[in-house]
Amino acid sequence: MPQTENFQIYPPVNTTAITVPKAVRLTTSSNLYYTTDSLMQPYMSAVYFRKTGNGSSLTFRFLDKDSVAINPAKFSNTKWTELVHGFNMQMSATHVKYEVAYPVPLSALATKYTSGGMARVLFEYPRRGFGNSLRNGVFGFNFAIYEPGDWEIVIHFKRNLKFEND
Asked: Which of 74, 78, 71, 68 is nearest to 28 (CA)?
């Protein structure tokens, strides 16, 4: 399938000019199943960036194939307190929000928050696969945001992730 495949479009039409791509693909993807024996491929998801205000926050949202919010608590192996160089993390059933300083990343130096001069985020969740084997689903991407503001990053899956054990 081509990477230009249509999704149920989430990005709003009235976005301001931004200094990050409006949509990117996952750069890390492993053990992401959408059926017992079908792995999700990076082109089966998109990551959207949207500026929502003039503050200094970064919000992560996750959507399934029907654009329904996925509770971030499902990604229970994610190191939420080490995900971004931010503070005052707030998690709800629909999103995770951090107060951050811009630019993101703050420095080009290698840190636990960066990879190759870009901010790096990884989300993880455990599940038992066939034969009771533990499979840690992992996905992530690199990005940079240079324009201050309240930013929302939405990870939209074309297929629903399989969170249930086999």
From this structure: 78
Output the CA–CA distances (angstroms, integers) from residue 110 to 3, 84, 94, 104, 116, in the order listed. 30, 13, 31, 13, 7
Return all residues near 42 (Cβ < 8 A) that are at least 6 apart: 25, 26, 27, 29
- Delimit the domains of the chain by residue range: 23-157
For residue 104, give the 3-state DSSP assignment: strand
Residue 120's nearest CA partner among 140, 145, 149 is: 140
Q: Residue written as tokens 């080490």? A: 82
Q: What is the mean pLDDT of residues 87-114?
A: 92
**d(Cα 87, Cα 90) in Å, to the nearest integer?**
9
Q: Other C-beta atoms within 10 Å of 110: how many?
A: 11
User: How do residues 67-98 score in pLDDT, each as one tens digit?
Assistant: 999 999 999 999 999 999 899 999 999 999 99
